Structure formats: structure tokens, C-alpha cells
Amino acid sequence: MSPPGLDESCEMAAGVNAGQTEGLRSEWLALQAQHEHYEWAALGLKLSALGVCAWGLAAPLAWSLILLLWVQEAVLKTFQARLADRLLRIEQGLRAAMSPIASTSPTSPPAPAVLAMQLHSEWLAQRPRGLGLLKEYAASACRPTVALPYPLLLLLSYCLA
After folding, report:
1. Positive or negative: CA dihedral 82, 85, 87, 93
2. Among 26, 74, 105, 123, which is most exposed with the fewest C-beta within 10 angstroms?
């Protein structure tokens, strides 16, 4: 039999943990849906660039529109990467909540607490400013999954002009 009050404090701690875990689960579901939505939006931008090329606009106008769509996708993918970072933090928090014995092991450092509904607060604390933000967008634009069709479409629109 446990000392008086111990059961109540354990139940309260378990309730807080369960409430926090439920908040993290809800946030994960919402962010995952948004993450997938960004994939469809990126596909839409790629198809729009293909349409610009197929439409046969004058080369300078087509190049401008294709470049604009490329930049737009880079910004979109940067936003998506921020969501992915938060999703990974939430998964880490959920994993730590599911295995409290592993997180309190003397051989491994304790996992940092992950609070639900902190996407913008965490992002604002890490947000690059000015040139750093532009570098982040440029790095995203150079990723093969983003860049792949755009140089080819620019070349194709040049050849068709």
C-alpha cells in the first residue's frame, strides 16, 4: 500500500502527461496534414511551370514566370521544412512520453520536454533574419527535389522561342 496522497499525485502527474501527449498527438495530426498539403501545392507549382512552357509564351515572359514559380516553390518548401522540424520534435516528445524508463536511464541524457502548440514560438526563436532568411530560401531552391524541372523547363522554353 502506498503512502497517503501518493496515488493522487501519481494520477495527477499521469493526467498532465496524458493531456500533454494528447495535445502533441493533435498537433502532429494537424501539422502532418499541412505537410502533405504543401507537397500537393509544390506539385501544382511544377505543373503550372510546365503549362507556362507548353503555352509557348515569349521567351522572356516564360522565363520570368518559370523563375517566379521556382522561387515560390522554394519558399513553400522552406515552410514545409519548418513543419517537418516541428513534426520531428513532436515525435521525439511522444517517444519520450511513451517510454519513461528509457528517458530516465542513467546512460542516456533526458529528452528535452516538448510542449504542444509551440510551432511559431519555436520558429521565432530560431528564425534567421535578412540575409540568413534569403540563404535559407536559396538553399531550398537548389535542393534537387525542388530544382529538378525548372532548369529543364527554362532550357525547353529557350529552345521553343
Report:
1. negative
2. 105
Q: Whole-angstrom Cα distance, residue 135 to residue 139? A: 6
Q: Give the count of alpha carbons within 13 A of 148, CB side only.
A: 8
Q: How far apart are the first and last CA of the chain?
A: 85
Nearest 5°: phi and psi at 110?
A: -65, 145
Report, as ranges of residue numbers, the positions in the chain whose pLDDT lies below 70.
1-17, 100-112
The answer, as to whether pTM is greater than 0.70, is yes
**Distance separating alpha carbons of residues 117 and 25, to the nearest angstrom:** 10
Taking only the tens place, the pLDDT of each residue in 8-37 is 333 333 344 677 789 999 999 999 999 999
* pLDDT of 101: 58
Task: Let me know: does 116 contact 23? Beta carbons within 8 Å.
Answer: yes
Contact by Cβ (8 Å): 119, 30: no
